Description:
Rossmann fold, two-stranded antiparallel sheet, alpha/beta
Amino acid sequence: xxxxxxxxxxxxxxxxxxxxxxxxxxxxxxxxxxxxxxxxxxxxxxxxxxxxxxxxxxxxxxxxxxxxxxxxxxxxxxxxxxxxxxxxxxxxxxxxxxxxxxxxxxxxxxxxxxxxxxxxxxxxxxxxxxxxxxxxxxxxxxxxxxxxxxxxxxxxxxxxxxxxxxxxxxxxxxxxxxxxxxxxxxxxxxxxxxxxxxxxxxxxxxxxxxxxxxxxxxxxxxxxxxxxxxxxxxxxxxxxxxxxxxxxxxxxxxxxxxxxxxxxxxxxxxxxxxxxxxxxxxxxxxxxxxxxxxxxxxxxxxxxxxxxxxxxxxxxxxxxxxxxxxxxxxxxxxxxx
Length: 337
Ligand SMILES: C[S@@+](CC[C@H](N)C(=O)[O-])C[C@H]1O[C@@H](n2cnc3c(N)ncnc32)[C@H](O)[C@@H]1O
């Protein structure tokens, strides 16, 4: 073996350690691996393979554990699957402690630790605005909260660019999607049928109120206000985010948690960018602008903005082959009244 071989093998081992184990080799590891390479006892490919099979590497890349919701239903797995099939667009994945699974666009259970929700929600009243398939509502209820959800009556309630007003719901849906025992009509948003399927399966007590975000006020809930208001992945779909936050402020007793698509630009100046792409996605604020939105809506204390991941699981693909799910980071704000 030449000195050059020895040196190039040292470089190789050092590079593999950096790339795979994200660290420098210790003296023993370096010497041992270089010796084996020099002697031709292992090939570089075998060395790489053994590093990728090492416990150290597997610890490094071990995926975060998904929070599994408690399965509180009584149906068997076949019935569960058949009920879930009544809806094709699942925005959330539901992984349950008994092994039942309904996969959807985003596996929130994987990243839930990043939201900073209280670990115990007993005695809390929580409003989940834009509940979608209802993963968060289920999570809050299972932590002991008394949960109310809000969602749109349909596409008619969405802020759609170029549409000069909100069409009457009857034009979109001549009859309600269901009528409650007390006679109240219920309409599913394009996303929220999943909430109702899970509510039926699990026996959730969470209430559901149809409204546009801007219509939120105490009267909508018989005068009730909420300890915690959560609005996940809705701000980006609103023409008037400050108006929406003002509405939430009116029912928020204590704390609001919401997230937004971040704009990474000009951090010293509050700036928001109008997003192009689809007709229902509107604004990306930079961090200082996001904070200004909450101040403008009357929140007094705003925590530093943090990041949460949205991890795509099994994206829904429409009849045109399109999917809107994207693994991404969003900006999270905690604000207090
Ligand atoms: C992207 S999903 C978010 C679901 C869930 N909150 C989360 O964070 O994963 C947005 C939800 O907001 C609802 N939504 C959109 N615009 C709304 C509006 N103007 N008023 C009320 N709900 C709205 C949609 O129907 C949908 O359920």
